[in-house]
Design goal:
By secondary structure, the protein is of the alpha+beta class. The chain is built from four helices and ten strands. Helix 2 packs antiparallel against helix 3. The protein is elongated and about 90 Å long. The protein starts with 11 loop residues before the first helix and ends in a 14-residue tail after the last helix. Bound molecules: copper (II) ion.
Length: 262
């Protein structure tokens, strides 16, 4: 049996100092983590709520990380082996029911709360799109995407994706060969392109500009090159672009006045 009494018990003062350090380090950590630029610009209506959720995760995670590391460092410092203690043995301890109950219940509540938040958010942003929502077929293949949009004249295929701003769009994602993953980081959402089935998500582009389209699933040697662009345009420019693409493909486009082959 050994005697650790020369270390003394952990006093209330110890706890207060430790707690104060955890609080200060957590505040600094949260400020630092929130200041980091984690994501590209917000290009869709779902980006702000997703980024807010990320911030919540950061705010909850940092204090947990800090507390765990602080307790670890405190224990290493406080109960380190000192000269002359090489042959001593620790006191025989058989668990602590109280501690075990606490460290089971608290994480359960935290995880349950965060997953509930995430589930509600996902259900909310993926509510069924309104009838008449523009549908874009996204086809993944080794190693390029192609996009099929419904123009007034019929389907128009393109290597780049074009979308009108502030109009809801639903992506039907498919694959010709292996599993890919359709991701526009500026839009935030992504979904696997799985051979044999159609996966979907919907959102509304809210920012004009050209953004990266990325394959986010390792799909072969050319995976890293499977990058294209999406250009979000005004409604007028979008209509002109679609007409241009249809014309280039040899498909006559029905103009607004009913003319064909404009
Ligand atoms: Cu791919």
């Amino acid at each position: 049996m050994t005697d650790q009494s020369h270390r003394g018990a952990v006093t209330a003062k110890n706890w207060i100092v430790l707690l104060a350090m955890i609080v200060v380090a957590s505040v600094i950590g949260i400020i630092f983590m929130l200041a980091l630029n984690w994501f590209p610009e917000q290009g869709s209506d779902v980006a702000p709520p997703i980024d807010t959720f990320w911030d919540v995760l950061v705010i909850v995670s940092v204090p947990i990380f800090v507390a765990v590391v602080a307790m670890m460092l405190f224990s290493i410092w406080r109960w380190r082996q000192r000269p002359g203690e090489e042959d001593l043995d620790g006191p025989p301890i058989h668990g602590s029911t109280k501690l075990e109950v606490i460290w089971t219940i608290v994480p359960t509540i935290v995880i349950a709360a965060l997953t509930t938040y995430a589930a509600i958010l996902l259900i909310d942003i993926q509510a069924a799109p309104a009838k008449g929502t523009r549908v874009v077929n996204v086809n993944g293949g080794q190693f390029a995407w192609d996009f099929e949009t419904q123009a007034p004249s019929g389907p128009v295929k393109s290597e780049r994706l074009y979308l009108p701003i502030n109009e809801p769009v639903k992506f039907n994602v498919r694959s010709k060969d292996v599993i890919h993953d359709f991701w526009v980081p500026a839009f935030r959402l992504k979904v696997d392109a799985v051979p044999g089935i159609t996966t979907t998500y919907n959102l509304t582009p809210t920012k004009l500009g050209t953004f990266d389209v990325v394959c986010a699933e390792l799909c072969g040697l050319g995976h890293a090159y499977m990058r294209q662009t999406v250009t979000v345009m005004t409604a007028e420019r979008y209509a002109a672009k679609m007409a241009g693409l249809a014309k280039a493909a040899g498909t006559p486009v029905a103009a607004a006045g009913g003319g064909v082959g404009k």
